[in-house]
Give the backbone structure.
Amino acid sequence: MQSIPSRYHRVRARVQEKRSQWKTFFYNAGDLVAFMARFFKEVVRPPYEWREIMYQCYLVGYKSTFLIGLTGFIMGAVLTIQTRPSMASFGAVSLIPGMVSVSVIREIGPVITAIICCGKIGSRMGAELGSMKVTEQIDAMEVSAINPYRYLVVTRTAATILMVPLLTLYADIIALYGGYIAMNIHDKATMQHFFGAAMHRLEFIDLLPAIVKSFFFGYVIGIIGCYKGYNARRGTESVGIAANSAVVASSLAVFIIDMIAAQITDLL
């Protein structure tokens, strides 16, 4: 049997370990909040890095169109195919376009687009800035009197804020086209009739929250990805850790924002 002093020391060690973990968690959370708040101060201060912002918009937006379009097409087609048997049993096949449009535009389109951007864009930013941190390029920019936060973080975050809503609208349109193609597998419907029925079911309250929350999705994807890379530790292993943690943290933030937006929309 273990003596009472040995049990006491073991319990005390565990308590101290938990206390240290919680202390680290709150320290990192506070550091992230300060990092996120700094963006709003730096983004309005000249000079503005327009060329770098446009280049990041190209990387975030244009380079993601194929993946977002393919995902949106499959999303709309699968949603139509899966719901048709249930709707047909009630003789409500004509309601499928409206169901697809409301589901995609209000919830599925923004969230799926944001999650794909978390994996593709957030991980790239975390790995890119992490490698710059490891190779001391960020330190060299500070020594050269260049503000690395403004050049690296503000430009990338601004690009995601601008491009994620556009990618969301693009995914919504492609998803509706995918639903139209899937609809014509068993039924015959013209594109004008399908899109007319889809738009007829939409209301302003369906469009506005989806567009607004996509801006917040873009902000958290960009700022969290940059934060994980900007604060990476020394060593090559930290680059992979920064990329992986950027995907996990930004995905979690997307779901939290979506939950809050759903509650606010329900109150409206």
In short: The CA atoms of residues 213 and 261 lie 7 Å apart.
